[in-house]
Each structure stands twice: as structure tokens, then as C-alpha cells.
Design goal:
There is one protein chain. It is built from two helices and five strands, in the order βββααββ. The strands form two sheets. A three-stranded antiparallel sheet has the order 1-2-3, with helices on one face. Strands 4-5 form a two-stranded antiparallel ribbon.
Length: 81
């Protein structure tokens, strides 16, 4: 089993991104509105870390039934309830 390292980075436009170590291609981006940035008062990176942690945890916990289904055009879609 291969191990891939990921890192959180702050992009030039201020977005927080998750990417593979050594890559410049973001896999996931998080952007906060100016009002939320003001409300969080510099703690937006901690919130982004928690959001990414929760997302990664969810991916590991997904069962086969929760995986995205294929669309006719080959794209994948997950139905949220």
C-alpha cells in the first residue's frame, strides 16, 4: 500500500487548498467570505484544517452504498439528502 502525503497551503488569492506534497495542483479549495474572515479574526486556517480533517474522515468512513454513482456521460455524482 502506497502512502501519499498531503498538505494544506494558503494560495496567492487567500484560499486554503489541500494538495499532494510536491504538487502545485489543489485537490480541494476553501474560500471564506470577507465577513467570515473578519468574524474569525485570523483563525480561518484552523477552521479550514478542521473542515479538511472532517472531509477526509468522511471519505474513510464511506460505505459502498455512499459512493458516487455514475452518470450517463461518465461523470460521478453523489446524491445528498
Amino acid at each position: 500500500m502506497s502512502f501519499t502525503e498531503y498538505e494544506l497551503v494558503v494560495l496567492d488569492d487567500g484560499e486554503i487548498a489541500l494538495q499532494r506534497s510536491g504538487s502545485d495542483e489543489p485537490l480541494v479549495r476553501i474560500s471564506f467570505s470577507p465577513s467570515i474572515l473578519e468574524y474569525l479574526d485570523g483563525r480561518h486556517i484552523d477552521v479550514a484544517k478542521s473542515m479538511m480533517d472532517a472531509g477526509i474522515q468522511t471519505v474513510f468512513e464511506m460505505s459502498d452504498e455512499g459512493k458516487p454513482s455514475k452518470l450517463d456521460n461518465g461523470e460521478e455524482r453523489q446524491i445528498l439528502h
